[in-house]
Amino acid sequence: MEPAGPRSATGVAPATRWALAAGAYAFLWSTVLLWRMGAVTDALGQLLPFTTGPPAVFLALPVPAVGAAAWWTVVERRGAYSFRRGAAAGAVTALGTTLCWLVVYAFVWGPRLVATGSILIAVVLVVTVPTAALVMLPLLYVRRRWSAEPASASTAS
Q1: HEC letters along the chain
Q2: Is it the case that residue 141 has pLDDT exceeding 90?
Q3: How far apart are CA 80 and CA 42, in angstroms?
Q4: pLDDT of 8
Q5: What's the pTM value of the predicted model, to 2 decimals?
């Protein structure tokens, strides 16, 4: 259930628009960060036989859907615009995207080979989860500023 609120002229609730914006925002940031990781991104991209185009964009493909779902579930559905929730939405986005890719890699290479790369998976999570949590904080700040709710309600966890 979405929080009650006015709908725009397009008929889309503000919570849904914010969730979609969060997915797009997460995609842009993840593409930039994956591009900056260079060698790691290239290596992960080359492990998949169907990789086309720049690996950074390809590896970021699940992020808009995962990011929008995470933002809506963690932030919008509860109507609580705390920074803790924004960081949690970023962390869930990173975890969900990593899980999506683990499933793809397991399908292509087999679960045993993916399990042998557990150190690499741990490194990816150690980098992506805190980074994603930090990246979502500016969006949460903007969401709080544009929220029609009183300040006391937006600080709830």
Answers
A1: CCCCCCCCCCCCCHHHHHHHHHHHHHHHHHHHHHHHCCHHHHHHHHCCCCCCCCHHHHHCCCHHHHHHHHHHHHHHCCCCCCHHHHHHHHHHHHHHHHHHHHHHHHHHHCHHHHHHCHHHHHHHHHHHHHHHHHHHHHHHHHHHHHCCCCHHHHCCC
A2: yes
A3: 38
A4: 58
A5: 0.82
